[in-house]
Amino acid sequence: MEFTTKISIDDLNLFYGDFHALKSIQLHIPQNNVTALIGPSGCGKSTLLRTINRMNDLIENVRTEGRILIDGQNILDPSMDVVTLRQKVGMVFQRPNVFDQSILDNLLFGMRIHRQMRSRSQTMDLVHKSLEDVGLWDVLKDKLRKNARTLSLEQQQRLCIARVILLTPAIILFDEPCSALDPIATMRIEELLKVLREQYTLVIVTHNMQQAARASDYTGFLYLGELIEFGPTAHIFTNPRQKMTDNYISGNFG
Amino acid sequence: MNRKWTETVIEAAIRLSGFLLIAFVFLIFLFLLKDSLSLFRVYPFFDFIAGTKWLPISEPPSFGIVPLVMGSFMVTAGAIAICVPIGVAAALYIAEIAPGFLKTILKSLIEVLASIPSVVLGFIGIVWLGPFVKNLFHLRTGMCGLTGVFLLAFMALPTIITISEDALASVPRMYKEAAYGLGATKWQALWRIVLPAASSGIMAAIMLGIGRVIGETMVVMMVTGNAPVIPTSLLQPLRTLTATIAGEMGEAVSGSDHYYALFAVGLVLFIITFILNFTAERFLRRTRR
Asked: Which residues make Cβ contacts (< 8 Å) with residue A111, sequence separation at least 6?
């Protein structure tokens, strides 16, 4: 596999109390590509994703061992500043989680908390660009004061992506970003992923195998906390090396 | 057929209970209004509502409720100024910061706080808090507005904490996740996202707290000194609407002007608390939406 590694996961183990949720994960995630993590429910794919921006810190009784290197820095190191980390590694969640505030306030939240507010015109340029990137500018340019929760779910999810983009992250994590959306909206978000990978490293967790096949460049298959197989998506779906992967993608279990 | 008949009876019974509730509120209002009007036939309404002297047993009597409204207002404002910041902060602590076991302990302690009879608090006010306030400010008497303010603030705390805590706890988890995901610190997530999202519930809590304070009788009667004069400072003795009714009802001759004047005071109180509860309900409904 020829690629530049952006995230390098090295012998990662994670425990919820006594439960061993991730077992010795070794994984190199390529830069400027879409990497999909698939596997049956409870296999640890979301947990793995949430380790990359330390969202698991919010849960009690979680213990992590091993290393995750992003640009050579071990982000699991206790001295790592999670605020800086999460600015660099953005996250889009399962359900669109826009705040009960105006569209503009949603977009500016990140810049406000990181004290990055610039002059009004500069700020508006950034807002413009981020909405342009997610394909919302034309629809929303005159409605920036409207409450974000009045938008359709797809628009809300796009807004969530724009909110992350505004912080100029290097990596964006997607935790089943389309599970609340209808098929057409799902397709559009998948197209957006293909555009975004030009600028960002994307990691997407999905239980939808077609989605992984359609939208990703690389795929990792997890089962019971172990990374069973990782490789180019075309490979995984046409010619998997492991019997278990084959069984899963052909729908024999999971 | 039998089953249908049972359904009808149950439905009728439930409906009756609902209507009874409305009827009771309405009847209380009518009852207060009827006796209040008996006063206004002999005593001008304007002199009642804008009069500055409450001298019910002098000759001729004067039934101006401004001193009483002012008394109630000052005590309430003082109590709210103290208990809102403390109550909301405590609710934030319980809902967002305290670890699980402490949360359970604190919540049940607040229940205990709410169940202390007001006479007991009044007693504490007389024997301990009153003298303390007296010495602190070198007053002639500790039975003054401030002593009442402290005790009332204490009494409204459970209401404010419980309802604010409910409002904070019902802020969807996904808002917090979104904030943390964007790199917010705990404090930023609380201040910028959780608090605003819970704001209408917290407003309702404050309204109900005010209602609780305005309606409280025993404590204010015991510790505020009961001087029906327009208070200029909380360090003076003053008297509230509630304490007036409770204190004078026993000595007012049934059917006298004084007697009806007390009903008119009750009507004023009823209208104030009705408006407060109504506003609180509006806020709560906005939270649920």
From this structure: A117, A123, A126, A166, A167
Are the beta carbons of B183 and A113 separated by less than 8 Å?
Answer: yes
Q: Mark whether B123 and B223 lie in a shared domain.
A: yes
Residues of B within 8 A of A58 (CB-CB) are: 177, 180
CA distance A167 to B183: 10
Do A109 and B175 count as a contact with CB atoms less than 8 A apart? Answer: no
Q: Which of A41, A30, A68 is nearest to A52 (CA)?
A: A68
Q: How far apart are CA B21 and CA B273, in angstroms?
A: 17
Q: How many CB atoms lie within 10 A of CB A21?
A: 21
**Mean per-residue pLDDT, B194-215:** 91
pLDDT-based confidence at residue B287 (cuts at 50, 70, 90):
low
- In a mutagenesis test of the A interface, which of B176, B182, B287 is the best target, namely the one with the most A β-carbons within 10 Å? B182
Co-location of B7 and B128 in the same domain = no
* Residue B156 contacts residue B212 (beta carbons within 8 Å): yes
Q: Is residue B41 part of a domain?
A: no
| Residue pLDDT, tens place only, B100-127 | 899 999 999 999 998 999 999 999 999 9
- Are B14 and B91 members of one domain? no
Contacts of A99 in chain B (CB under 8 A): 175, 178-179, 193, 197
B74 and B10 assigned to the same domain: no
Task: Find where tokens 């505030």 sit.
Answer: A101
Domain that holds residue B88: 46-288
Burial of B249 per CB tally in 10 Å (0-12, 13-18, 19+): middle
* Residue range B28-87, pLDDT digits in tens: 999 999 999 999 999 999 999 999 999 988 888 999 999 999 999 999 999 999 999 999
Count of the separate structural domains present in chain B:
2
With an 8 Å Cβ cutoff, are B193 and A82 in contact? no
CB < 8 Å to A49, chain B: none
pTM for the model stands at 0.81
